[in-house]
Amino acid sequence: MRRRVPDFRRPVRRRISVWIWWLIGIFVIAGLLLFVVQHQHQVQLDLPNQEMTSQSADDSHASLNFTEELLSTTSFARQLNDQITLAKAYVIIAKEHSNLQLAWELSSQIRNCQRLLSQAAVRAKPITIEEAHPIVSRLSHLMYKAQDSHYDISTTIVTLKKHAQALEERAHAATAQGAEFAQLAAESMPKALHCLNIKLTEEWFRNPSLKTLSEEQRNSPRLVDNNLYHFCIFSDNVLATSAVVNSTISNAEHPQQLVFHIVTDRVNYKPMLTWFLTNDCKGCTVNVRNIEEFSWLNASYSPLIKQLLDKETKAYYFGGKDQNDEAKFRNPKFVSLLNHLRFYLPEIHPSLEKVVLLDDDVVVQKDLTVLFSLDLHGNVNGAVETCLEGFHRFYRYLNFSDTRISAKFDPQACGWAFGMNIFDLIAWKRANVTSRYHNWQEQNADRMLWKTGTLPAGLLTFYGLVEPLDRRWHVLGLGYDLEIDDRLIESAAVVHFNGNMKPWLKLAISRYRHLWERYVNFAHPYLKDCIMH
Ligand SMILES: *[C@@H]1O[C@H](CO)[C@@H](O)[C@H](O)[C@H]1NC(C)=O
Ligand SMILES: *[C@@H]1O[C@H](CO)[C@@H](O)[C@H](O)[C@H]1NC(C)=O
Ligand SMILES: *[C@@H]1O[C@H](CO)[C@@H](O)[C@H](O)[C@H]1NC(C)=O
Ligand SMILES: *[C@@H]1O[C@H](CO)[C@@H](O)[C@H](O)[C@H]1NC(C)=O
Ligand SMILES: *[C@@H]1O[C@H](CO)[C@@H](O)[C@H](O)[C@H]1NC(C)=O
């Protein structure tokens, strides 16, 4: 009603309202335009990949470079490729945890992914979001599932490292074999070792006083004196043993307090004896024994001997060659027997209380007498643990498909290393360790629990009886690992050339060889004659 009142203003008002309508119209259109532009911009921000790649595809459709596409940070091809890599890792992990369903699903998505990638490469056209999305989301879902079921990132890293390690070891084995085929071995140390043995044996027969000397040493009260520091070495390699002994005394404050108990085989007995009788060791005591002296080490006592004499086992170890009892100690394969002597330390040294076991492929770099005063907390075996690297866990050495193993042991239990161990022989006898060893060795008569080596038997025998030592006591891997930290090596009390690339072989890793060579007297007349250094 009130509107009607100012009737006279109507024409003016109508003109103004037309203008207003025009203005509103223009604003609306401008607003719409702005909205559309803004929106498009946002879409571009959200999906730079799709917009940009499809644009460039439209521009230069024929000349798409798929290599560049794979390297581009924004392409779907790149994303798919990255996901394949990750998914493959999860396949390995899933398989390892026997989750075959997940492994299968992942593999099938990986195949889809690869198919899409190869299609894109063939048609030379980038992958679009429509193509990539279903696969990416399915893969992401599966990987989420994998992560959810305890395959966390540390498991992933551990598993990947383990596989890398396995590959590396295979590569090294191939190197070693290749070297053998190349007759490298023929011109390297083994021949020199043989030559050294011959010269030492000659000297033994030339010099009758050596025999008297050795008998004197054999009865030395120092051999059973528990106030001295006792070291055990089981070896068939004179040169290696001499480097172990020399490096130990060279770094000891009081070498005259050290006693070395060496056990070797018949072939190396006289050379070993002669070497240590004719080379000064700064007042230390060295006792050399022949494994054949141990009459208690017979088939009725040791399951290992029994197994080694067993016909079938013999075929396994010796490739079917006929062996008689007498010959067993002569066969070089019986080195394994020397290795197994570490399970008979109290039998070999009935009156000793503590001994340090050294493998013949170690080099000592610090005074080891401190080891004897470490508190082992009632444990039998002081050893460095090796599961820091993740993969040296029980499941790696033992057959966990067998209930005798899986019922008693944790597959993730930490492994440890032989090579430098301090043994409390009193605790050993208290815990009946030797009979534990016999029990496991007997159970493994069919080689179901583990295949070869002394470590698996050790892991079972000393289970719950191992005192972990600081890792710097014993740094491992110098016989296969090319990338050990220099500072770690420098800080190590003992470095261990475990692996195929022993320092006395041509194959040795040159970076570490000097660590061993500095304890070998290459000026010794026999070594000079035998080794072209
Ligand atoms: C594709 O790109 C890569 C890396 O930029 C280049 O090395 C390669 O030569 C290119 N291939 C073709 C066919 O252009
Ligand atoms: C076998 O060893 C046991 C003890 O270890 C010993 O009593 C026995 O006499 C040995 N047998 C032979 C034939 O030496
Ligand atoms: C592991 O143990 C199981 C059960 O005893 C056996 O069937 C399997 O052959 C063993 N594996 C190996 C590699 O010996
Ligand atoms: C050790 O063996 C002896 C007999 O050989 C036995 O009497 C003793 O109980 C065993 N000790 C342990 C801890 O098994
Ligand atoms: C022991 O090592 C030292 C170097 O530390 C060396 O001079 C010496 O000749 C070595 N002795 C023997 C017997 O090899």
UniProtKB/TrEMBL annotation:
- Note the InterPro entries from the entry: GAUT, Glyco_trans_8, Nucleotide-diphossugar_trans
| Superkingdom of origin organism | Eukaryota
Q: Which CDD domains match?
A: GT8_like_1
User: A single GO molecular function, which one?
Assistant: polygalacturonate 4-alpha-galacturonosyltransferase activity
The record's Gene3D superfamilies line, in alphabetical order, gives: Spore Coat Polysaccharide Biosynthesis Protein SpsA, Chain A
Q: What is this protein called?
A: Hexosyltransferase
Record carries keyword S-adenosyl-L-methionine: no
What are the TM regions of this chain, as residue ranges? Answer: 20-37
Its membrane topology is listed as: Single-pass type II membrane protein
Pathway participation: Glycan metabolism; pectin biosynthesis
Query: Could you tell me where this protein is found in the cell?
Result: Golgi apparatus membrane
Q: Quick one: where is this thing mainly located?
A: Golgi
The record lists the lineage as: Eukaryota, Viridiplantae, Streptophyta, Embryophyta, Tracheophyta
Query: What are the recorded Gene Ontology BP terms?
Result: cell wall organization; pectin biosynthetic process
Write the record's keywords in alphabetical order, separated by commas: Cell wall biogenesis/degradation, Glycoprotein, Glycosyltransferase, Golgi apparatus, Membrane, Signal-anchor, Transferase, Transmembrane, Transmembrane helix
One cellular component term (GO) for this entry is: Golgi membrane
What's the short name of a Pfam family annotated to this entry? GAUT_1
Q: Does the keyword Oxidoreductase apply?
A: no
Q: Which family does it belong to?
A: Belongs to the glycosyltransferase 8 family.
EC number(s) in its UniProt entry?
A: 2.4.1.-
